[in-house]
């Protein structure tokens, strides 16, 4: 299992070559089943507290959930186990009589404008209303449990994404981000080290086949989407807490969406949980920091899971790039 496989899946839709990722998802789930690798890996089902540098029980995570103002629940989009555990976290909040507001990377404002959430009673009804299959995201069955929990608990639902065309304009640099987003970016610029790390991550996640002309726009696109997610939570900070469901790269504490939260509200308590697929040759939590081009894992907790058996990503990326030439 090469490092770029995990990174490709963690960056996903924010990047120009995201179509490749969705081809993986539909291929994996065409038969409605998922096959996992490394289910007996020594880290599977273990939770690593990054700050304390020790393994903890899920009750520790449950307690941390109840203390946070902003919560980032980071997934690999196509891994059913990650969604089950996100749903576990969400239900810990619901069962504690909290009323979190939930922002979804999978939804944008244009979709939600078409929906009267007061009349939606099931996840399938919401998927139909937002035309889920046309959105490019993986099969609705993967997200059914999460959305059903939110709907049954009558929680507020927020968008945390740009429409596809607007995102393309940002990535192609044909249109500048909106004033609010640009202000967030200006207030919290990347350092030289962060820019270098992001560049390395983008190149590696695309198997070192990323055309140079796309790099600046893709970095901007990723940053803009992190800022949009942060703004969605900040604009609904009255929720207790405000929760983001997104790819785990967006919950990075070093240069992801949480950094914009801390820039605006330094005293806010954020919690970032990343569900992380194991790799055969990486046997300790510290081994995984290199994947993120960081000295330490950029999350509060890393929750290790088996790895989904997927097609080889570099073959698909190469094919996609060749089609675009």
Q: Give the class-level CATH name.
A: Alpha Beta
* Total of DSSP H or I helical runs spanning 4+ residues: 14
The CATH architecture classification is 3-Layer(aba) Sandwich
What percentage of amino acids are in beta strands?
5-15%
Tally of individual domains: 1
Overall average pLDDT: 88
- Output the radius of gyration: 18 Å
| Amount of helix | 40-55%
Structural class: alpha/beta
Low-confidence stretches: 1-31
Briefly say what this structure is.
The chain is of the alpha/beta class and 325 residues long. Helices cover 46% and strands 13% of the residues. It contains 14 helices and 10 strands.
Could you name the key traits of this structure?
alpha/beta; globular; disordered N terminus; 325 residues; eight-stranded mixed beta sheet; two-stranded antiparallel sheet; Rossmann fold
Explain what you see.
- 46% of the residues lie in helices and 13% in strands.
- It is α/β, with parallel strands linked by helices and 325 residues long.
- The protein has one domain: Rossmann fold, CATH 3.40.50.
- Strands 3-2-9-8-4-7-5-6 form an eight-stranded mixed sheet, with helices on both faces. Strands 1-10 form a two-stranded antiparallel sheet.
- A hairpin with a 4-residue loop joins strand 2 and strand 3.
- The longest helix is centred in the last third of the chain and has 23 residues.
Summarize the helices and strands and which ones pair or pack.
Elements lengths: L2 H9 L6 H11 L7 E2 L9 E3 L4 E3 L1 H10 L2 E6 L4 H16 L5 E4 L4 H5 L9 H7 L2 H4 L4 H13 L4 E3 L4 H8 L7 H9 L4 H14 L6 H23 L7 E6 L9 H8 L5 E8 L23 E5 L1 E2 L4 H12 L1
Helix pairs in contact: 1-11, 2-14, 4-8, 6-8, 9-12, 10-12, 12-13
